[in-house]
Amino acid sequence: MADRLSALDASFLYVEEPFVPMHVGSVAILRRRDLDYARVLALVARRLSYLPRYRQYVEFVPGHLARPVWVDDADFDVSYHVRRSALPAPGSDAQLFELVARLLARPLDRDRPLWELYVVEGVDGDGVALVTKTHQSLVNGTETIDLAQLILDDEPAGGVGDGGDEAEAWRGAARPGRVRLLLDAVTDSLRGPGEVVENVRNAAQDLSSTAGRVLDVAGGVATTVRSLVRPAPQGPLNAPVSGGRVFAGVSAELADLRTIRQRHGGTVNDVVFAVMAGALRQWLLSRGEPLEQTATVRALVPLAVRGPDSVGFSSVGLLDNRVDPCLVDLPVGEPHPVLRLQHITHAMAEEVRARRSVAARAMARVSGFAPATMHSLAARAASSLSGRMFNVVIANSPGPQHPLFAGRARLERIYPVLPLSRDQALAIGVASYDGGVYFGLNGDRKALSDIPVLAGTISEAIEELKGTDW
């Protein structure tokens, strides 16, 4: 029987355009410790047996009589997906982020499995960065997790690429021919004849508009929210997206956010959004944007919630849990930082009461670097809402507070990269790890050429909250 994509997974392929690639990513920076391209290649090759989907590509059915299917790549070449790059001296963060922006702006090759990993050498002299790109249709948190979650371990793994266990031998199934694809489509149509009508309609209409309807249905909660909430206030964040990208990463201390929480109340999650409210306020003012005291920026904030039958949070994957989109108005017009935090704390408390939200400490126990997968699911949740309903995506996911390793190399920091939608010029991923908090800012090059300014205001917003007594 055909391994067919779900309606939601297929929709991410339908809505994708050359200037709006639908992949998520991360930028992991590690101490070198003998980690080089050959060792990363060996590590990934060994782990791929745990992720069969990473050796499959998408085959479209002739005439769109059914949704696409996953097909083994009989000519799979891991070295095509694990690539090598390097920075010129001195290998600064600015140089790395410029390279990341260019890498992430390129769509993935649809004739191959939909992922890439770049080994970037020369970071800060002798460090290494691992830059991942994974299509949203690939990562669903159950059958497939994000690549970054797979290659990072709690303990250093000696011998990777030095005569350790060899990669499992693998031989893909034969590629299905046109006749087989059509026969499988007919067989599946007998189980759900109404879907054939919809699939044929897809072939005759603009697929992006059809996919929009699929996402509306798949969103569930999002569809309800759409009917109840007025459109978001328009501003520079809702600009048509071009083909270029800019990226910036910001590092902060988790202890500082905890100090702010202890002093002014709320949760660390609330503090993250208050920091972003303050940063966006200063960024808008730097652009000369008029800000009345009641001005807001609406953030789409994906929340991890338990499913109706779930009693806990899985230690293996997300499994019985899901990520729901919620909308939070960030009070960027409010000049007092503590009042901004209080507004957000109240709004987030309402959202948490309405859902069975997963506690941060439970999420942090998920094996591997779970934020990578959580950010992939957050991007899915964001795609289920119309861009008219929000201005910016901000996805925060707590991670483990102990060191992680790729081979013997210790992970120092990791910045999430969320994709942009057609009219959304900024997406922000936030992850905590080993005492740090890392903000990844992905922006459109034309609309947010001043993204370094926004990155600088994040640190200023943290200092502002730390230094304010109430």
TrEMBL record:
Record-listed E.C. numbers: 2.3.1.20
Q: Which GO terms describe its molecular function?
A: diacylglycerol O-acyltransferase activity
Report any one BP term from Gene Ontology.
glycerol metabolic process
The O-acyltransferase WSD1-like N-terminal domain sits at 5-272
Domain O-acyltransferase WSD1 C-terminal stretches? 321-466
Sorted alphabetically, the keyword list is: Acyltransferase, Glycerol metabolism, Lipid biosynthesis, Lipid metabolism, Transferase
Family matches, as InterPro entries = Acyl_transf_WS/DGAT (IPR014292), O-acyltransferase_WSD1-like (IPR045034), O-acyltransferase_WSD1_C (IPR009721), O-acyltransferase_WSD1_N (IPR004255)
Reaction catalysed by this enzyme: an acyl-CoA + a 1,2-diacyl-sn-glycerol = a triacyl-sn-glycerol + CoA
UniProt signal peptide = none
GO CC list: plasma membrane
Q: In which pathway does it act?
A: Lipid metabolism; Glycerolipid metabolism; triacylglycerol biosynthesis
> In terms of domain of life, where is this protein from?
Bacteria
What is one Pfam family matched by this protein? WS_DGAT_C
Q: What enzyme category does the UniProt record give? A: transferase
* UniProt key word Cell wall biogenesis/degradation: no
What family is this protein classified in? Answer: Belongs to the long-chain O-acyltransferase family.
Protein name per UniProt? Diacylglycerol O-acyltransferase
- Organism of this sequence: Saccharomonospora piscinae
